[in-house]
Amino acid sequence: MLVSLKWLRDYVSLPADLDVDDLAHRLTMASAEVDGIHRVGGEWDRALVVVGHVLEVAPHPNADRLRLATVDFGGDAPQQVVCGAPNLAVGQHIAFAREGAKVIDGHSGKPSVLKKGVIRGVESAGMVLSEMELGLSQNHEGIIVLPSDAPVGTPLVDYLGDVILDVHVWPNRADMMSMTGVAREVAAIVGGTVSMPASDYRESGGAASEAVSVRIDDPALCARYIATVIEGVTVGPSPEWMQARLRAAGMRPINNVVDVTNYVMLELGQPLHAFDLDKVSGEVGVRTAKPGETLRTLDGVDRALTPDTLLITDANGPIALAGVMGGEATEVTASTKRILLESARFDPVSIRRTGTRLALRSEASGRFERGLSAELALAASKRATQLLVEVAGGTARTGRVDAYPTPYVAPEVSITRARLDTVIGFHVSTREVETILTTLGFNVIQSDGGSAGGIFVVRVPWWRTDISIPDDLAEEVVRLAGFDRLPATPIVGGIPAWEPAPILDLRARLSDALVAAGLQEIISYSLTTTEVLERVIPREDLALIRPLRLKNTQSSDRELMRPTLRHSLLETVARNLNAGAEQVAIFEAARAFIPVRDSGRVLPEEHEQVTGALAGFEVDRWGRATSRRLDFFDAKGALEAALADLGVTTTYTSHEEYGLLPGHVARLEANGEPFGILGEVHPDTLDAFGIDTPVILFEIDLARLLPHLPRRRATKSLSRFPAVTQDLAVVVDDTVTAGAVQAIIEQSSLVVSASVFDVFKGGRLPAGKKSVALSIRYQAADRTLTSDDANKEQARILKRLEREFGAEQRT
């Protein structure tokens, strides 16, 4: 939240020589972090950028759109400048820059030094400034018009300058999402007093209840709804002082009615909404949506509503998304004369759910989601009515319609002295505890905390919706007493014993190995939908699995806990390919949640899995894509490298799997036991994800892989004798895998390694046959092998292959 110190001084007494950096530090240590300090006007030269007064305006002799303004800036004589602003008028007090001042160039948006120049034949040595030229906003449509009492010649930094604190308010502190809320905290920290804004106004005419009635269907969703009626308003620009404060808080002025609702929201923290009462028919209701209902919101979008969407309605249907955004049909326009002002307390969960589902976030919904007090609604309604009467004219009808089914009762919270000392870690005197709590607005009902058996009992102020348990009181005490008072106490007790977590260790090791093999790790949502899961799991299997469904999901897109990671990888591949990625090589190490039915278990089985996907083109050493697409063997090579790094010897056997292309799937095995799969994704599955290029997928079950990790890595000395490398191609039945051929070859005591470099079918080979070509490296530990030795060993290998598979050497 952006906090203007100039505005803040309206509510809390601060010294004129306030050390802003010290205040920011103390606020950070006690309440909310100050992420930044922005000094508005710090770049304005005190002598060259001042308050001016327009004495005369004359037409430019050579340009229809330009005019000549004579400006009194407090100098020896007025100065004539050329100005093109359409809102320039005689008698205005304006922001004026003289020659040599640094301003923002309206065309380039960059700082520039103002120089004397000739504009269409007329000399001009100054400038009447807009918000953009002062760096206040991007508005360049007209000049800034200051109040008529702005003293001429005063440095503009003294009149418009300000210090803005960027305060990070934590989600539990709804009360600090306002200027008065911050003022309470600052007063407690520096010892000042708080003054709340005035809210007195005259009422006239009939009762508000004669013009509007309110019905709340479910008080759990709307604890309070106040409707106030203001008639005879004139919609137009809000006064400059209000616009300046809204801009300082990061909001864009719109018109006086909307600006008042935003102003009071920033001032008191209560979101408000103004309806054109002449466009509202019949009773105002607060209810959830009915099937098939829609609403066109203020942004012009037609919104389909679900039964859990909280609405504001009239006799014709929905007129607003409660706490999120108003409807276009009842929008306040330039012709609006009667206003229905809404001030309410809506359920935070309902507002958050609606905003998430519709992807709508606003300043109002952000405050409702934190949980506001129903008591705030009345104060905000009175203040906004007072301001509307002041800046938009009109009169307020007598009273207001206040639907408040269950009035607020201030809760009482207690904490014992023993608990207080234990939680905060040091002793704070009873008097100091009382002072801190009283300063923060708590009513101390009982205070006999002088002994260990004593107790503090307080009544919580209505704006502190975050206080409910004893430890909340302890936090209030320690943050004001000061965390720097915590003593340095050595740890007492034994150090907990280390407990191994082999699955997590394996997950980390395999992730590192896959990264080393060239893949990138991703983290995706663990929640999904039935429609997405049906793309990778047969519908009948999914019905048997029955994935776990969240009870209070925030979005229909995130309602099921995933029983597999495959869809997450394919969604990520599709998103990256659609974004123009030439290559996608990714993996995710996460849990899949498998429900266990009829076994007495409440929680699901959580399977630690590593799933990966490769798609796109090979890249060269410079990172440029080549014309070759990644295929099954690229994924197999990456997996082999990663698993070899773990010391696991992997074999590949033919397999079939739903969603993968038959004949292009292998089961990963270690010591004859399966632990994963590798295969090309079926084209039908790719179509379901909108992917038009081949994708290779692998999946490893870490629990099944874990038993096959070697207890210690076996190493052996390198032979000092040279190796002999020979190639061998054999013809075998198509059903014989290359891995089986390789395994027979590697049984030889002289074979150091054997690697497949080609598998060929067709050509002159008989039907049902294929050629497997391998590169074999021979080496002996006790002698230098000759070519004749290698040939003899290869002949023995051929005989074994012939005996096992009926293999023939290909010549």
What does this structure look like?
- This protein has 811 residues and is of the alpha+beta class.
- It folds into 6 domains: 2-41 and 163-190, 2-Layer Sandwich (Phenylalanyl-tRNA Synthetase, Chain B, domain 1), CATH 3.30.56.10; 49-160, OB fold (Dihydrolipoamide Acetyltransferase, E2P) (Beta Barrel), CATH 2.40.50; 203-403, Phenylalanyl-tRNA Synthetase, Chain B, domain 3; 412-481, Phenylalanyl-tRNA Synthetase, Chain B, domain 1; 502-708, BirA Bifunctional Protein, domain 2 (2-Layer Sandwich), CATH 3.30.930; 724-809, Alpha-Beta Plaits (2-Layer Sandwich).
- Helix content is 26%, strand content 30%.
- The chain has 21 helices and 43 strands.
- The strands form 11 sheets. Strands 30, 33, 34, 35, 36, 37, 38 and 39 form an 8-stranded mixed β-sheet that branches. Strands 3, 4, 5, 6, 11 and 12 form a 6-stranded antiparallel β-sheet that branches. Strands 14, 16, 17, 24, 25 and 26 form a 6-stranded mixed β-sheet that branches.
- Helix 2 packs across helix 4.
- The mean pLDDT is 92.
What is the topology?
Layout: E1 2-4, H1 5-8, H2 20-30, E2 33-40, E3 49-60, E4 63-72, E5 79-83, E6 93-98, E7 102-104, E8 111-113, E9 117-119, E10 122-124, E11 126-128, E12 145-146, H3 156-160, E13 162-168, H4 179-190, E14 203-207, E15 214-216, E16 222-231, H5 240-248, H6 256-268, E17 272-276, E18 284-288, E19 294-296, E20 302-304, E21 310-314, E22 317-321, E23 325-326, E24 338-346, H7 348-358, H8 363-368, H9 376-392, E25 395-398, E26 401-403, E27 412-416, H10 417-424, H11 430-439, E28 443-447, E29 455-459, H12 470-481, H13 502-516, E30 520-521, E31 527-528, H14 530-533, H15 539-545, E32 560-561, H16 566-578, E33 583-594, E34 605-619, E35 625-629, H17 632-645, E36 651-654, E37 660-670, E38 673-681, H18 683-688, E39 695-701, H19 702-705, E40 724-733, H20 738-745, E41 751-760, E42 769-778, H21 787-805, E43 808-809
Parallel strand pairs: 14-25, 15-18, 30-33
Antiparallel strand pairs: 1-13, 2-13, 3-4, 3-6, 4-5, 6-11, 6-12, 7-8, 9-10, 16-24, 16-25, 16-26, 17-24, 18-21, 19-20, 21-22, 22-23, 27-29, 28-29, 31-32, 33-34, 34-35, 34-39, 36-37, 37-38, 38-39, 40-42, 40-43, 41-42
